[in-house]
Design goal:
With about 350 residues, this protein is of the alpha/beta class. Helices cover about 40% and strands about 15% of the residues. It has helices at about 45-55, 70-80, 110-125, 145-155, 170-180, 200-205, 205-215, 240-245, 250-255, 260-280, 285-295, 310-315, 315-320, 325-335, and strands at about 15, 25, 30, 60, 90-95, 130-135, 160-165, 190-195, 215-220, 300-305. Strands 3-4-5-6-7-8-9-10 form an eight-stranded parallel β-barrel, surrounded by four helices. GO terms for molecular function: oxidoreductase activity. It comes from Serendipita vermifera MAFF 305830.
Length: about 350
């Protein structure tokens, strides 16, 4: 008998390589933004992580800035309580927005990248993370300094890989050039927003970096902040992120946009997509996630969940992927009409 909470691979789950690395992550993963340590605390966090683990999810993503560090604390506590074996788990965190008002408590200086990781590991109760992401680009810091700082973290055994988040294709290319010039370890993945509502970057701008560097995406907001679930079709429901997070101006702007003519057009698109999903025997949530999962650029889609039930519905997207044939693609593309063309040359 083992004291560990044994990991059992889900036969429906695909475990994909993260870029050109040897690391394999579940194609559906669990994220900590807004929910874990934020709107969800205590035992419910443990229940969500337990549900993920029991269903073959081996990758959990968080960040130093999520809920001012509480996301890392809650995840670390629950992983310890559940006795999840560290070698079975793929864990990532991100650096950019630290705590405090010191001029060096945020950004991508060598000082903050290294000290931020030490603080994250303390909150997570871990000796290392598997992937350490630069949560945003920092044009005020030389790229060589950024790259060397992430490499130092890897060389010290504090991280196994590093990646970028919300970087442009040009910035990712610049990082790879520095790595090639000095023989340094390059980023393996980019964490990017990608949904049927937001496609220009993932399906357009990034095409050259997929080909040149084998970059893969850890996708967030595949449901466009919940919009593609249909929950906002008839207004803003109580308990939704638009209703709860009134302190986030950009979220409130999205909420206001729902009543605009463009917002109403988008709601009609969701209604049409819902009918396509029903015809396949799936929910609009599941079809929306499956469409992004089917993309060759996707390593994993990060799920945001407030309950195990929400997670189980999103996990149902695994069965929808194989239903997306050319006819379904045609229907979806006719609804949204936003598939980007070839990117402009930026080399």
């Amino acid at each position: 008998m083992t004291d560990y909470f044994e990991f059992k691979a889900n036969p429906k789950m695909e475990y994909r390589r993260l870029g050109r690395s040897g690391l394999r992550v579940s194609c559906l993963s669990l994220g900590g933004w807004l929910t874990l340590g934020g709107t969800v605390k205590g035992d419910p966090v443990r229940d969500i992580i337990k549900c993920a683990w029991e269903n073959g999810v081996n990758f959990i993503d968080t960040a130093e800035g999520y809920a001012e560090g509480e996301s890392e604390r809650e995840i670390g506590r629950c992983l310890k309580e559940l006795k999840i074996r560290r070698s079975d788990l793929v864990l990532s965190t991100k650096v950019f927005w630290g705590q405090g008002e010191s001029p060096n408590s945020s950004g991508l200086s060598r000082k903050h990248i290294i000290e931020g990781l030490h603080a994250s590991l303390e909150r997570l109760q871990m000796d290392y993370v598997d992937v350490y992401f630069a949560h945003r680009p920092d044009p005020t810091v030389p790229m060589e300094e950024v790259v060397r700082a992430f490499n130092w973290c890897i060389e010290q055994g504090k991280a196994h890989y590093w990646g970028t988040s919300e970087w442009s294709a040009h910035e990712i290319e610049a990082a790879h050039h520095v790595c090639a010039k000095f023989g340094l370890i390059a980023p393996v993945a980019e964490q990017a927003e990608h949904s049927l509502m937001n496609r220009a970057k993932a399906e357009g701008e990034f095409l050259p970096i997929y080909e040149s560097y084998g970059t893969k995406l850890t996708v967030f907001s595949a449901l466009s902040g919940g919009f593609l679930t249909g929950k906002y079709n008839d207004g803003i429901p109580e308990g939704s992120r638009y209703a709860v997070h009134t302190e986030m101006d950009w979220l409130q702007e999205r909420a206001k946009a729902l009543s605009s003519p463009e917002g109403q057009k988008n709601i009609e698109k969701v209604r049409k997509l819902t009918e396509v999903a029903k015809g396949l025997g799936f929910s609009v949530t599941q079809l929306s996630i499956a469409y992004i999962l089917k993309m060759g650029s996707t390593a994993t889609v990060i799920m945001g969940c407030k309950t195990p039930e929400q997670m189980l519905e999103q996990l149902g997207a695994l069965g929808a992927v194989e239903k997306i044939d050319k006819e379904v693609e045609k229907q979806v593309e006719e609804i949204f009409g936003n598939k980007p063309g070839p990117p402009r040359q930026w080399r």
